[in-house]
Structures are given as C-alpha cells and as structure tokens.
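Z., the sequence and structure:
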Amino acid sequence: MHLRPLFDRIVVERIENASKSKGGLFLPESAADKPTEGVVLAVGTGRISDDGEIRPLVVKEGDRVLFGKYSGTEIKIDGHERLVLREDEIYGVIDQ
C-alpha cells in the first residue's frame, strides 16, 4: 500500500540509531531514544496560503531530514512504522 499525504504533510521513515553507546556499551531498546532523523518517503502537494494559492513544499522524496523527538503522528503501513509530519515540524534537510 502507498500513502499519498495531503497538502503540507510528509511521510517519513525513521533511521534507527546505533544500539551502542559512545563508550562501547550496548543499550537496551527501552533505554534508547527515538531517532530524530529520517528519510522522506512521500510529500503532499503543498501548503494552501491565505490567498488560496498552493505553495510547494521545500522537502522532496529521498531527502534526509531532522525533526523533533515527539513530532508528528506514528502510523503503521504494511507492518512498517512510519511518521506523518507537517513541513513546519522539520528542522532541516541533511546534505550529504
């Protein structure tokens, strides 16, 4: 199944952090923080401005983005965890 977000919403797949601390200790899943980095899987058409025009989104599919730890809404599609965010919940795009 493919989810097509509406307007200024974006579907993101989280990129999992390493399960090892800087000191070399393995962290249990319960102690690990939620990843705040992900890959954009799908984007909506854009935000509707006050005058009724659609402003296209800055991010595009395939971008690596940073977002807040508790941002967005978690959903499950075909057994995979996804995150639906608004464009203004994204802090920035990571250039590689």
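The chain has one domain: 9-94. Strands lie at 9-14, 37-43, 47-48, 54-55, 64-67, 73-77, 80-86, 90-94.

Let me know what you think.
H.
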